[in-house]
Amino acid sequence: MSINGALQIGQSAILASQAAIQVAGNNMANAATPGYNRQVARLSPSRPEFIGRGGFIGTGVQLARIQRTVDTALQGRARSAISDQNSAEVDQRFLNAIETIRNELTDQDLSSRLSAFFNSFSELANNPTDEAVRTVVIQQGSGLATAVRELRIEHTKVRTEIDRALGATIRTVDGLLDQVADVNRQIVETEQGGTGGDANALRDQRDILIDEISQFIPVSCIEQANGAIDVLVNSIPVVLGGESRGIVLRTEASGNGTALSLRVEADGTTLNPDGGQIGALFRQRADTVDPAIEDLDTLARELAFQVNRVHSQGQGLRGFSSVTGLNAVRDPTANLAADAAEIPFDIRNGSFELHVTNQSTGERTTVLIAVDPATTSLNALSATIAAAFPSGTGSSSVTADGALRIDASNGYQVSFSEDSSGMLAALGINSFFGGSDATDLAINQALVDDPRLLAAGQGHIPGSNTGALAIAGLEDVGVESLAGRSLRGFWQSVTTDLAVRTEAANTKAESSMLVRENLESQIQATSGVSIDEESINMLAYQRQFQAAARYIATIDETLQTLLSIV
After folding, report:
1. DSSP state for residue 271 in the 8-state scheme
2. CB-facing half-sphere around the CA of 98: CA atoms within 13 A
3. What is the pTM of this model?
4. Which of 139, 438, 512, 556 could form a disulfide with 296 if both were Cys (CB 3.0 to 4.6 A apart)?
5. Residue 292 and residue 285: Cα distance in Å, rounded?
6. How far is CA 68 from its chain centroid?
């Protein structure tokens, strides 16, 4: 080997040692930097030199690459755990929110208000002619209706909160995808620009972005040969190399509300994430909040109809001089069973009795009104009722907003009974409640103005409490449309189901946090910086540097000796 070759060996050792020391120092400097992956200087022998029959002789050492210590499989599991934990926390948050709003197991919950309402009718049955007790019943009904409406508003606020959160998180993720695409371009430019090395800092930056995206939506990554990665959601690409395809929230009208969907902005492909904050927000909207609102609407609708069905066939302490239905018909010319009528309750083929009573003599005329919803419109029904009145005793009409109005005249009053069709309750004639769901459930204002109209009796029997007893019994009577459950039983059932799901969500949130922490500990053991280990590495590279310097000094001394001989 030539003197120059020997010096080159020493030089390579010094340069490699300096680089390795710098890598160790950089690791120590970034020991507390979030997202930093420990780097390792990979040294390899330089290409040996052929020296003839003696074979090959080494030419020193070279820095092969500076490599990040990353376990990609473990990294993928950790990202899944991040998505699962954030998903579980969103589930926990909104399930607890609905449970808190309902506030069951307290004195002010809806179950207690239902019991108080039906109990007030039991009290009325004991004193059916007492106006003070009648007023208490009306107050209990008004308080129940107000509580239902307020619950509906609070449930809707939760859904609005979810919608706002979806919009904000999707915009955030869309911005992060743009950043990933930008970093992809930088990595390709750096690593393909002739340096032959890895852009480790940029790769760490990209990993941080992907980890952040995983909080919102579960993703998978495929690295390309040029160093860029493709980001996919359920096998649908959202980032292809240096291009972000973007995501966007699509809002569409659906029934009485709106339907939300997540789409790829580039081509409109629907994404259905099953985890992360976004997946959990969609799930909570569809599986918790919307059903909770529907349950409340169902309770309000059945409460109104079942109570009105009994009340509309009963009589108070006086009849009506004029009564207007609380539920309007959208198209009075359409058959009552037609969709165009938009009647929220079912009307069956049957009949009801219309009673016309002379206030001065007490003489009462009873007329049977037949109802066939398949062939009868509101206008036709009104005409039939008008024709049934004895001459000069009353009339019937349809108001401008589609409500049935029945008027008595010339000292007569009207009352109703024996309704087998459910028409009176469906149209809100002589009803206790108005409204068809939790948004508009309200007490009949006519009862508030005159408690004597509260129908506690039936059969036109003075002092009768039959109607009050029948309504009081509705608390525990099975309802066909509620799968045989009573009104109170239905509400307790859906509330219990919510409580079970909430407890499961609390447990899952705790367990998912432990899984994520465990995986993060494994990542830290693999990719984290150990100060002690780096200190040892630095000492080893320092000794290597010192040995190389001593080697060069030895070669120099040898050269000086040779020169002195010459």
Report:
1. E
2. 32
3. 0.87
4. 438
5. 10
6. 39
Count: domains in the chain: 3
Residues 214 and 81 in one domain: yes
Same domain, yes or no: 218 and 352? no
Query: Lowest-pLDDT range, 56-60, 322-326, 473-477, 496-500?
Result: 56-60
Q: What share of the chain is helix, strand, coil (3-state, %, to 5)?
A: 55, 15, 30
Whether residue 84 contacts residue 275, with contact meaning beta carbons closer than 8 Å, is answered with: yes
Minimum mean pLDDT range among 191-205, 320-334, 377-391? 191-205
- Judged by DSSP in three states, 556 sits in helix
Crossing angle for the helix pair 487-527 and 110-126, nearest 10 degrees?
170
Closest CA to 263 of 242, 288, 241, 236: 236
One-character DSSP codes across 327-378:
S--S-TTSBTTSGGG--SS---SEEEEEEEEETTT--EEEEEEEE-TTT-BH
Residue 194 has pLDDT above 60, yes or no: no
Which residue segment(s) compose the domain that 54 sits in? 3-69+529-565
Residues 237 and 336 in one domain: no
Q: What is the pLDDT of residues 65-111, one digit of tens each?
A: 888 999 889 999 999 999 999 999 999 999 999 999 998 877 778 99
Report, as an integer, the average pLDDT of 513-536.
Answer: 91
489-518: average pLDDT: 94
Q: Any idea which residue has 């790829």 for tokens?
A: 264
Q: Do both 273 and 325 map to the same domain?
A: no
**Number of Cβ atoms within 10 Å of the Cβ of 299:** 23
Q: Is there a single domain that holds both residue 278 and residue 344? A: no
Of 374, 396, 429, the residue at which a domain comes to its end is: 429
Tell whether 281 and 325 lie within a shared domain: no
Residues 495, 499, 500, 501: what is their CA dihedral angle, to the nearest 10 degrees?
100
Tell me the C-alpha distance between 157 and 377, whole Å.
38
Answer yes or no: do 63 and 79 share one domain.
Answer: no
Do 81 and 56 belong together in one domain?
no
Least confident of 45-49, 119-123, 329-333, 368-372: 45-49
Segment holding 323, helix H or strand E: strand 322-324
